[in-house]
């Protein structure tokens, strides 16, 4: 873990300000959601990304894509498997 040398105090509501330099570096914009993890005596903040688990293969990747308004998430492999199965079923239905 790399130290930034930046120290911030926790306010009376338990809030901590993340410096703009860090937010810019990590691509965290105003209103972005952060995930909070605990690792022994450390609090880890990570920019939240919606669950991108492929509905077919179970692969989790930021490269997966969401379809049908986010109801279906597919990896490339999952999309190919689904397309093959759809083509087979449509051929049988003819």
UniProtKB/TrEMBL annotation:
Record keyword Transcription present: yes
SMART domains (alphabetical): SpoVT_AbrB
InterPro entries for the chain: AbrB_C, B_subtilis_Trans_State_Reg, SpoVT-AbrB_dom, SpoVT-AbrB_sf
Ranges of residues in domain SpoVT-AbrB: 5-50
UniProt keyword annotations, A-Z: Activator, DNA-binding, Repressor, Sporulation, Transcription, Transcription regulation
Record GO biological process: sporulation resulting in formation of a cellular spore
Any one GO molecular-function label of the UniProt entry: DNA binding
PROSITE patterns attached to this UniProt entry: SPOVT_ABRB
NCBIfam families assigned to the protein according to its UniProt record, in alphabetical order: lp_hng_hel_AbrB (TIGR01439)
PANTHER family the UniProt entry points to: PTHR36432, TRANSITION STATE REGULATOR ABH-RELATED (PTHR36432:SF4)
Name of the featured protein: AbrB family transcriptional regulator
Native source species: Schinkia azotoformans LMG 9581
């Amino acid at each position: 873990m790399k130290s930034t040398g930046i120290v911030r105090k926790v306010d009376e509501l338990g809030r901590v300000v993340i410096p703009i330099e860090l937010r810019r570096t990590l691509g965290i914009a105003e209103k972005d959601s952060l995930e909070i993890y605990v690792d022994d005596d450390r609090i880890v903040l990570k920019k939240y990304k919606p669950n991108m688990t492929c509905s077919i293969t179970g692969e989790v990747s930021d490269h997966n894509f969401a379809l049908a308004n986010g109801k279906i998430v597919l990896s490339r492999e999952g999309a190919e498997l689904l397309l093959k199965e759809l083509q087979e079923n449509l051929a049988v239905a003819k």
